[in-house]
Each structure stands twice: as structure tokens, then as C-alpha cells.
Specification:
The protein is mainly beta. The protein has a domain of about 100 residues: Thrombin, subunit H (Beta Barrel), CATH 2.40.10. The chain has 2 helices and 33 strands.
Length: about 400
Amino acid sequence: MLFRALTLCLLTVTALSAADWPQHLGPLRTGHSPEKGLLKTWPADGLKSAWKVPGGVGMSGIAVLDSLAVTLVQKEGQQYTLALDAKTGETQWETAIATEYNNAMGNGPRAFPALTSTQAFAFSGQGILAAMDLKTGKLHWKRDTIKEHNGAVADYGMAASPLVFGNVVIITTGHENGVVIAAYSVDEGKPQWQTYFPDSIGYSCPAILEIAGEKQLVVFTGTHLRGLSPLGEPLWKYEYITPYDCNIVTPQLINGDLFISSGEDHGAVRLNITKTETNYTIKEVWASQGRTSVMRNEWQTSILSQGYLFGFDNIGGAGPITNLHCLNATTGEAIWKMPRFGKGNAIAADGKLFISMMDGNVIIANLNKDEYQELGRQQVTRGTRQAPSLSEGLLLLRDDESIYAIDVSGH
């Protein structure tokens, strides 16, 4: 069964084209796109809009597969999965998956959709997991994951994006005594396995990573970083408690080690995990914690490039001041910072950072370890927390009103 799952996952990954952004943080959940030939200098007359269309309320990002852009929006009392032609913005289908979700920290769905060649998977603000036909939007199945585990919705809504791995879709959701990692069959939505932990839920998205020489499911709950087998068997844990249980970023690999970071003045750590027979040993390679930390990612996952981490350092509770930092990923040493840069979120492609800001600006900067090199910035949205997505030279963004496509190709 494990071999079959690994084989299916490999087939799914290798079938992707360079233009696809099928899940949270892109093809490999690293924030990187393999696209090349993007703009090298800022256009004299600014970035060009390819299209702009009405959307809806929400914090979900935009997934792209085979020129179909999919996101979640809230309107008219419902949460919808919305699919657009990525090249034109024309609506292809929309499917209601849940009633509206409202929260003091922002209304609407939070989680990024996950796409395969045949299906779209969406997770609503209150924990409804739904599967739809990618081409038509026909609802295949849905599960009320909170209700079936007698759990409670996370304080700020359900934000952990679904992870498709082989023939299952994996989510982090509420359990009556904490959190449960649950896997459902992609075709019928039948439960395949579930693993309970007495943790708070948190808001981080699970990832399949190679740790200690083996494929593992790595989950960052509200209180712990945990490693599981691809079939949900607990392997190891590392306690990481933050105020308000606000662990949000997706764990990333640094030469086989794990990197995690949290806001609320908490900090970051690089962990080395080794295995001897059936026992795992966890060691801190470096840690930067508390008020003197140099990397406190609030809801932005840092970008690793050529041995350096580029990310947002949010200072203080809820990060009223945010710097942009470059760190040496080997040592944790700060290389440069842009003080009071502002809140934003970033992805990387073709040697550049593409940044969407909460003030509505889009910023493009070189991925330069020696100094901050900004190519330019331009007001595009009404403000957003979502990192942009990239497909065929188009940067896709959204806010609570509209969905945008901006041309960043080198043409």
C-alpha cells in the first residue's frame, strides 16, 4: 500500500508542467516556481494587467492546473469553489461547498485548494472538506470533518490546506480532545486512517518531506512539530508552543533538516532529525528565539534559495512592525534586513521574489543574498495576506473583492 501511494505521488508530481501551481506554496510546497524567462527589469510604464474579475470574501489562495485557476470565495451566504480560465479570467464553474463562515479575524474560507488532473479539493472555514470534478465543478463528495470527530473549529478558522498524496487527501482538523490528522480516499471520500494528538489545531499546512532518509508526513500543530509515516503512524515530536497557538507556516527542508518559524515574538529553529533503528533523535542546529530573534514568520513561509532564507520578521504581538530579512540558512546569521518593510507574502521564480503586500502593492525584487535589490512596486489589489501564484507568466492575486492577473513575463 505504501509503495502504491509513493508511486502515485511520483506520477502526480512528474505530470506537472512548469506552468502549474496546484497547491499551497506551489508544486513542491516550497514557494518556488520553475518558470523561467520572466521580466528582468521593471517596465517603464508599469506592470500590465491581463485581467481583473469579481471574486468574493476570503483568504484562500489561487491554485492553477492546466490553465484553470481555482480559489475559494464567500458570497451570498455561501462558500464557493470558483474556477476561472487562467488566461482570460472567464468563469468556468463555481460550486457551493458550505454555508458562510464569519470570524473576528476575517470572514470566509482560509485554506488553499489542492488540484489533481481530475479533481479539486477544498476546505471551508468551518472544516468542510469537498472534492469536485476539476473540469465541470460537479461535487463528488464532502465531509464535515469537525462534526465527525466531535471537534471544534480553530479559534481563527480552519486554515490548513489539503494535501493530496497518492490516493488520499490529508487534512488537519479538530478532534474532541485536540487535533486529528485524517486521510480520505480521493475518489469517494472514505476515511483511510486518522491519528489523534492532544494538541491544539494550529493553522499550518502538512507536507510530505524526506526526513532521516525516509518519506514522512510533517505536521506543525498549534503546540508541536510532528513526524508521521505516510500512513499516519506517529514517529517523533518536537514541542513548539507559541502565544495563541499561532503556528502557521509550512515546515521547510534545509539540506535534510527542518526549518520552522512563528510570529508573536517567538522565533525560528533549524532541526536535525536522525534515526537509529526505530528511534529518532532531534537536535537544534541553530535557534533564534524571543524578542531578539531575526526571523519570526507570522503567516508567511520563508523562501529558501541557494542556502539563504528570505522571509518576513514580524516584531511584537501580532507583528505591528515587519522587517524583510535574509538569513544564512546554515548558521542562522542575519545577512541583511529591510526595516519596517511592511506585512506581505512572497513566492520565488527565475531568481526573483514576487511579493504581495497588505497595503495592496506588488513588489518584485532580486533573490540576492548580499543586499536587497528591488526592481519596482505597484499598487494592484485592495490589500491581501495571500502570497501570489504564478502560471505562464501571469501573477495571480486576490483580495476580498476581485481576482487579478498581472503580466510578469519577459515578453
